Amino acid sequence: MQTTASPSLPAAQQTASVRAPGPARPYGRYLYLAINIAILVFLLAPIAIVVVFALNPTPFIQFPPVGVSLRWFEKFFASRDFMHALGFSLEVAVLTTLSATALGASAALALARGNLPGARLIVATMLSPLMLPAILTGLALFQTYVLLDVGRPTWGLVAGHTLVTLPYVVRTTLAVLHNFDLRLEEAAQNLGASPVRTFFEVTLPLIKPGVLAGAIFAFIVSFDQFPVSLFLVSPGNETLPVTLFNYLKFDLDGTIGAASVVSIVLAFVVVIGLDRTVGLRSYVKL
Amino acid sequence: MSASIEIAGVSKVYDGGVRAVDAVAMDVRQGEFFSLLGPSGCGKTTTLRMIAGFETPSSGAIRVDGADITHVPAHKRDMGMVFQNYALFPHRTVAENVAFGLRMRGLDKATIAAKVKAALAMVELSGLEDRRPAQLSGGQQQRVALARAIVIAPRVLLCDEPLGALDKKLRQQMQFELKQLQKKLGLTLVFVTHDQEEALAMSDRIAVMNGGRVEQVGTPTEIYNQPTTRFVADFIGDTNIFRGERVGPNLDVGKGLILALPPSEMQGTGVLSVALRPEKIRLIPRAESAAAGSSAHGIVENTNFLGGAVLYRVELAGGHRVLVQQPNAGTSRLFVPGNGVTLEWTPADLVVLKD
After folding, report:
1. I want to staple B344 with a disulfide (CB 3.0 to 4.6 A). Which of A25, A163, A195, B295 is the partner?
2. What fold characterizes domain B238-353?
3. What is the pLDDT of residues A21-69, one digit of tens each?
């Protein structure tokens, strides 16, 4: 290493020795770009294949595609079974989002602020559905409902979805509460806000990004939920993933692809809709 | 209207038995700039938080204008507070921050707008109404916090190290402005700080706290010139503290040094501590003889040029190390390390301390 170049060294030579490690940088950048592109391809390729599959007119999966058509979308939207399943899925996802958000955010507040004994154990218990295979949760709920003889009501399905989406809301809300400056609440009270007023004026607006992020997760996970739903839906009243699965057992045409594309678009609509209505972008970079 | 505060034997004991505040008693007069001064962990912030209502005393009472408010919740105390990190609401604009307290009081929109405008003008922030706190500098945030606290015309203004995060120049300017504002509005102001210069410069009176207790309450001059305890003498400014045995009208502090006690302290026996401020000592070139009890010979060990003054550390013949501060009277009078010098002082400048 020529780090201690003597002052008598000609200036040109000095700059040359400084510049020597320079070219390594562009290579590093190319590598960085290449890895990022590879990750993007890995993440997006299945979606691209689904889209191709949905638009390809042949009744079998075929590559390369032979053309572009909307026949599978027509078939999907014309099917009463699919439309009913889509409506039911949306209904369950909305109800799940509401209950998981209300319960999860309240639980996170109590856990972060309440000085509860065994708070860590409670958090671990609440997050445990994330660790358990969802199929076990579904089976356990199924057996419980059978034992209780409650049948397979919609609220039972929503309860099951709430159970598996609650961890997301608890997690994201706890994260914002962890960084919450309690002096902001003290400042509000000092200025004359009652504890209830303080909650709605200061606490809630400031933890909103975490709660919203959790709500979005809850919606998407519920809308996309298969293992839990499989055990809890009643025949004739099935969610879209279950209907797709049943369809898949007998037919393998582009309708599946069309249904998947509709699901993806719906998920986008929810995220962008939340962004527009409650200003998600001011809190998190999308 | 500004109010007086009475803190009557207040203690705060946390779970686990830590006594954060121990039997603190003091009165803050109406319209007074009152500082709680002490090192971190001395209980000054806990005391302030009990006045604000964020903490409940374990025992004792807090009264405002004679009315017991010990168990009144914070939001009903009608006090303004400026927090250490300002605690501005990040999701609200400057104007909304300042309007918050007025809104909680249910004032109508026109009144709120007028008061917010006046408050922002008072802290010279007109034109920044629509900014968010994150878009302001530290000094501007500080002013917003101040405007937010005074716009509600609080009975008492509480400040928790409000200037701690500002750089020195801005800090001095804000000290001046806060003091002006407090005088103009006749505010009763309780100011928590660990910065003794700040407390001395701004306060009408200071309570020096240590280990949860009040060491001394007094005006800045009393606190500086007549500290009553060893802690106060040591904490406020630089000082020389000597401890020794009374021998007649003198104090024998060992290593051959005898100090003549001030006239008022000549009676008595036993062990005593005294303090002597560095600027109360005169430093002259080594004299032939030294008057016993009020002078000593030594060698300059260290010369610390402070600009307006020079701080010397002098090792006395017996081994005592003494700080001496002299006004900067030109380079001709500057002593350098190794110079032989004679120290002279007036026995009346010795301050007797309680341990």
Report:
1. B295
2. OB fold (Dihydrolipoamide Acetyltransferase, E2P) (2.40.50)
3. 555 567 888 999 999 999 999 999 988 888 888 888 887 777 777 788 8
Average pLDDT over residues A239-254: 86
ipTM: 0.84
> What is the average pLDDT value for chain A, to the nearest integer?
84
CATH architecture group of domain B5-233: 3-Layer(aba) Sandwich (3.40)
Write down the domain spans for chain B: 5-233, 238-353
Amino acid at B144: V
The CATH H-level superfamily of A80-250 is MetI-like (1.10.3720.10)
- Identify the burial level of B98 via C-beta atoms within 10 angstroms of its C-beta, where 0-12 means exposed, 13-18 middle and 19 or more buried: buried
User: A187 vs B104: CB contact, 8 Å cut-off?
Assistant: no
Percent of chain B with pLDDT over 90: 77
Nearest-Cα residue of chain A relative to residue B52: A190
CA-based nearest residue in chain A for residue B158: A190
How close B98 gets to chain A, by Cα (Å)?
A: 10
Q: Confirm or reject contact between B9 and chain A (CB < 8 A).
A: no
Q: Is the pLDDT of residue B280 over 50?
A: yes
Chain B residue numbers with beta carbons less than 8 Å from the beta carbon of A283 are: none
Chain A residue closest to B87 (CA)?
A184
Which residues on A lie below 8 Å from B88 (Cβ)?
A: 187
φ, ψ of residue B239 to 5 degrees: the values are: -155, 165
